[in-house]
Design a protein that fits this description.
Layout: H1 2-28, E1 40-42, H2 51-72, H3 74-81, H4 97-100, H5 102-123, H6 130-152, H7 160-189, H8 194-221, H9 225-249, H10 254-264, E2 273-275, H11 306-312, H12 314-330
Antiparallel strand pairs: 1-2
Helix pairs in contact: 2-7, 2-8, 2-9, 5-7, 6-7, 6-9, 8-9
GO molecular function: nucleoside transmembrane transporter activity
InterPro entries: Eqnu_transpt, MFS_trans_sf
Organism: Phrynocephalus forsythii
């Protein structure tokens, strides 16, 4: 009898131990797993009406638009370099080198300053803020285009060579400013989800289309070369003004403020949570893309690690270089007469 009681006590103790272990396991492993769509994650504002996306698209368009406007206005340049005349007699031809190779001069005047300004922007990226670089380059581009627009209605037949020199100087300044603007905006887009960088690239692709359409419309609407060119360059002026306004609006958006402050390290704790179906429906909703050159300047005054950057992007850089190399070789090449 005593033995039976002891066996009963042992079984009871063992069952109690098993129940205790099972209770612990049940507490650690929930029986019901909440669906993913009902879980709560860190709150991030939504890009309402795709406002930031459209602004980055516009900034991308403006980065290549000025040079596209310069290159597309071939009829206007020939008119100015022919002493402001549609046709010129053989006796008044003079030096035809400027007219025949004007596009080559523009290519050199735009490529060399672009490379130099790209190197300078890389060296000064941690010394000058992105706002200063972006706004100063936009204002400089606007000032140059205003000069070009004013020269449209000025009779330059008596000083054609000086007009050519002034035009080349304008192209040099415009190319350098556009390069600084483009690289600065791409650095800024690194603070945002990747879709905004895609908007910049799409906007750059649209730049050539916008300039071509504007040229066709202006040529069809105006019979005079100067009237057509005036409307054409005024379109560029308005576009750059719109770009400046949109860039000033960008940091006022809640969506932009969040990612900029997140990149600067100002946001350290999430103020509240929302269900995931209220968040932005994109693959990057749970991750923050970081920039190699953040606005908070973690290493102020220092030059970014060029060698490591080149090593990381070597294959992609070679592919881009090869594509542009072939494109520039065949660009504006015409068969011999």
């Amino acid at each position: 009898m005593a033995v039976d009681l002891e066996e009963e006590d042992c079984h009871h103790s063992a069952n109690s131990l098993c129940e205790t272990m099972n209770t612990t396991v049940q507490e650690e492993t929930p029986l019901f797993v909440e669906p993913v769509e009902n879980r709560h994650v860190a709150w991030r504002p939504k890009d309402h009406l795709n406002g930031a996306y459209m602004i980055f698209f516009l900034l991308g368009t403006s980065s290549l638009l000025p040079l596209n406007f310069i290159m597309t206005a071939k009829h206007y340049w020939m008119y100015k370099l022919q002493n402001c005349s549609e046709q010129i007699s053989p006796a008044q031809q003079g030096d035809t080198d400027v007219r025949d190779f004007f596009e080559s001069y523009i290519s050199v005047a735009s490529t060399v300053p672009s490379v130099l300004c790209l190197i300078g922007n890389f060296l000064l990226v941690n010394k000058i803020s992105v706002n200063v670089r972006t706004l100063s380059s936009l204002v400089l581009m606007l000032a140059v285009f205003i000069v070009i627009t004013v020269l449209v209605k000025v009779d330059t037949s008596a000083w054609t060579q000086w007009f050519f020199i002034i035009s080349i100087i304008c192209v040099v300044v415009l190319s350098g400013a556009a390069t600084v603007f483009s690289s600065s905006v791409f650095g800024l887009s690194g603070c945002f989800p990747v879709r905004n960088s895609q908007a910049l690239i799409s906007g750059q692709a649209m730049g050539g289309t916008v300039s071509a359409v504007a040229s066709v419309v202006d040529l069809a609407a105006a019979s005079e070369v100067t009237d057509s060119a005036l409307a054409y360059f005024l379109t560029a002026d308005i576009f750059i003004l719109l770009c400046i306004g949109m860039y000033l609006v960008l940091p006022k958006l809640e969506y932009s403020r969040y990612y900029i402050r997140k990149q600067q390290g100002i946001i350290t704790q999430v103020p509240r949570t929302l269900a995931i179906d209220h968040l932005e429906n994109e693959a990057t909703a749970t991750a923050i893309t970081t920039s190699l050159f953040p606005p908070n300047r973690n290493h102020p005054g220092q030059i970014p690690p060029l060698w490591s950057l080149l090593k990381t992007t070597s294959m992609l850089g070679f592919c881009v270089f090869y594509v542009y190399f072939i494109s520039i070789i065949i660009f504006l090449q015409s068969p011999p007469a």
